[in-house]
Specification:
heterodimer, A: alpha+beta, 4 helices, 6 strands, B: alpha+beta, six-stranded mixed β-sheet, 12 helices, 32% strand, elongated
């Protein structure tokens, strides 16, 4: 009936549990580091020689849900960059590469990000022509395409208030005919 | 803060009761600390703004403690003089046990019942909150007779009491409130006579929900306040809406007397109906020509289905005889969004409904949705200057923003009636910079009638009788919107 042996055993269990946790964390960290090393995201075009601080950073990506009713949030580790535009480009390229688990990529396959830059709280994302030319689907598809881009930007850059989507360097009326892209999209409208 | 002490002492009893277990004891201490900490975070408690009343001698009372909590007041109790004082917003409100008189500064008010002293605590009649508080404080308290609760209202919210009185040929609905309530008629027809009371909340129960010429009264909460929705007797020929003061009230009158109506300043009800704010409906079948829209796996082509649904809607509405219907395209021609909007505006359209089908990357997506216009950049507004200072192109595009309130109502009506008419899943309302609505100068909405990328929805849309149900739902929604008479 004395509580001391039970206490010792529970203390032992606790220590064991902590050790297991520490080991598990160490394992996860090494694995992700190795993976990140293999899939090194390409640096921003035009600035390959610039020295950037490198590390990994967890970022938020938003894909369409399978029933098209909402966005699905996932986190992913990408190469960090001290330069916001470079990080933005990396994140959008991750978004283009599609989900690894739940969710659906709403960007047409073959779409590439030509460049990304931030100016005066607005993110400018310049995509290749596939975004418009290969776009198929109805308004929900188009809505979620825009929503996933805008939300991914605002989710990672809280200071950005607007997102201007460009195709081959210039503004387009829309990507699928349903939503106006001639003006920057306000991040508050696409939450 | 008697409450807080009660909780702690209850825990303390538990601790003393079980001295054997040290672990439980420690746990209890931690719990007490945690609860005490949480209580300090919420000085008035989560339920501090809603208090129950008690019936004493057949009248409704609130304990002095609860009164202080409701008003956020500091309370003083002088046992020797039997006086209770509440200090709030720089006012001293003095009650005396046994007396119905309340003194506030140098003003006095007489309550309908005296302050009582029960179980060691003064009790204050609820009338103090509904009648005196509005005259002395900025706070507003609503008295819910059904739940026997008093609740503190948000700033700017006005509690209203509703009474219906009826005589031979007249029925009057009186809406009493401590402050002036803004009211606006939403719909003025016999089937649905709706008046919106802005920022209002119902205090107490309406004296009746069915009296005289009002066959049924429903009080519905709306984002803007409350709506009084009435179904009127067939005999009603006129109505009258007026504001009166002393006490502040809005009176809605109905009469069945043709003879006395005008002399009494009533407006004829039938006249309101026939004037018709909305006469021309523009139905826009989406896509067309080389722009085929979404294609289904089993042969559905959006542009064709859109056109067939649109034609169906036109036939149904035209048959009703009161509405004129214009189609933006009645064949497979290709039109830009601008051409469609121009056609709608030039036809003097009063309502614009663009018919589309939907599509998505996954076949799981199904259902219908309605969409209304919101400019790409609402935050800065349409007047934002471009960098070059050039003339704004957006003026034309953002025209639909002028009709956002009516567009919302139109979309809501269509969404509701489509849900009743079909088995399609209701996905709700979306606000987006819809190209299809740009430049359309009238209440407008896009209806996406199901996903052609979903096998079930596609089968439904390929079947002409199911399609007719969709058209019927859209048409009914439009008719209901017209019936509401919202401007």
């Amino acid at each position: 009936m004395s509580p001391s042996p039970r206490r010792t055993s529970s203390k032992f269990n606790l220590i064991l549990f902590i050790i297991v946790c520490v080991l598990a964390i160490a394992l996860i960290v090494t694995l992700t580091k190795r993976r990140a090393g293999v899939e090194k995201a390409p640096g921003p075009p035009g600035k390959p020689s610039e020295e950037l601080e490198v590390g990994t950073k967890s970022v938020l990506l938003y894909f369409g849900s399978s029933d098209g009713s909402e966005l699905v949030e996932t986190t992913r580790d990408v190469m960090a960059s001290s330069e916001p535009s470079a990080l933005l480009a990396t994140i959008i390229r991750e978004l283009i590469s599609g989900p690894s688990g739940k969710g659906i990529s709403t960007l047409p396959s073959g779409t590439q990000l030509r460049s990304a830059y931030i100016s005066d709280k607005t993110a400018y994302l310049d995509f290749s022509r596939e975004l418009k030319n290969d776009f198929q689907g109805g308004s929900t598809e188009e809505y979620l395409t825009l929503a996933s881009i805008v939300r991914t930007v605002s989710g990672n850059f809280p200071d950005i208030t607007h997102v201007q989507i460009l195709v081959e360097g210039s503004t387009v009326d829309s990507i699928g005919g349903h939503y106006d892209l001639t003006e920057p999209l306000s991040v508050y409208d696409w939450e | 803060m008697k409450r807080r002490r009660n909780v702690i002492s209850r825990f303390a009893v538990i601790v003393i009761d079980r001295p054997a277990s040290i672990v439980t004891n420690r746990l209890a201490v931690v719990l007490i600390l945690a609860i005490a900490f949480l209580l300090t975070l919420f000085p008035y408690g989560v339920d501090g703004q809603v208090r129950r009343s008690t019936k004493i001698q057949g009248k409704d009372y609130v304990s002095f403690n609860d009164a202080a909590l409701l008003l956020g007041a500091t309370k003083f109790w002088k046992a020797e003089t039997r006086k209770a004082v509440l200090n709030v917003e720089g006012q001293r409100i003095r009650f005396t046990v046994g007396s119905p008189i309340v003194a506030v500064g140098d003003r006095t008010f007489v309550l309908r019942a005296p302050v009582l002293f029960v179980k060691g605590m003064p009790y204050i009649p609820t009338g103090f909150f509904t009648e005196v508080v509005p005259q002395i404080l900025a706070k507003r308290i609503a008295w819910n007779t059904e739940n026997q609760t008093l609740s503190l209202l948000r700033e700017g919210v006005i509690p209203v009491k509703i009474n219906i009185e009826t005589s031979d040929e007249f029925t009057y609905l009186t809406i009493e409130s401590p402050d002036e309530v803004e009211y606006s008629p939403v719909s003025l027809s016999q089937e649905s006579f709706v008046v919106l009371l802005e920022n209002a909340v119902l205090s107490g129960k309406p004296s009746s929900t069915k009296a005289g010429l009002v066959k049924q009264l429903k009080v519905a909460e709306s984002p803007k306040g409350i709506e009084l929705r009435m179904a009127l007797d067939r005999g009603v020929v006129g109505y009258n809406l007026q504001r009166l003061t002393g006490p502040e009230r809005v009176v809605v009158g109905f009469t069945s007397s043709d003879a006395r109506m005008r002399a009494m300043g009533f407006t004829p009800l039938a006249g309101v109906l026939s004037r018709g704010i909305y006469q021309v409906v523009v139905i826009d079948p989406g896509h067309g020509g080389t722009d085929e829209g979404v294609k289904g796996k089993n042969g559905a082509i959006e542009k064709q289905l859109n056109l067939e649904i649109a034609r169906d809607v036109k036939d149904i509405l035209s048959a009703s005889g009161t509405l004129q219907v214009v189609l933006t395209r009645n064949d497979d021609s290709e039109m830009t969004a601008e051409e469609r909007a121009t056609k709608a505006n030039e036809s003097d359209g009063d309502i614009f409904v663009s018919i589309h089908c939907d599509g998505y990357a996954s076949s799981d997506a199904r259902g219908y949705c309605v969409e209304i216009y919101r400019s790409a950049d609402d935050v800065d507004g349409p007047s934002a200057e471009t960098a070059s200072g050039a003339i704004q192109v957006s003026a034309w595009k953002t025209v639909p923003a002028r009709h956002s309130r009516t567009s919302f109502s139109l979309a809501r009506n269509i969404s509701e009636s489509l849900g009743n008419a079909t088995d399609l899943k209701e996905l709700g309302l979306r606000r987006a910079p819809s190209v299809a609505l740009e430049g359309v100068d009238m209440p407008s909405t896009v209806v996406c009638c199901g996903f052609l990328t979903n096998p079930n929805d596609e089968a439904f849309l390929l079947d002409s009788s199911s399609r007719h149900k969709i058209a019927d739902g859209v048409a009914k929604g439009i008719v209901e919107f017209v019936g509401e008479g919202l401007r």
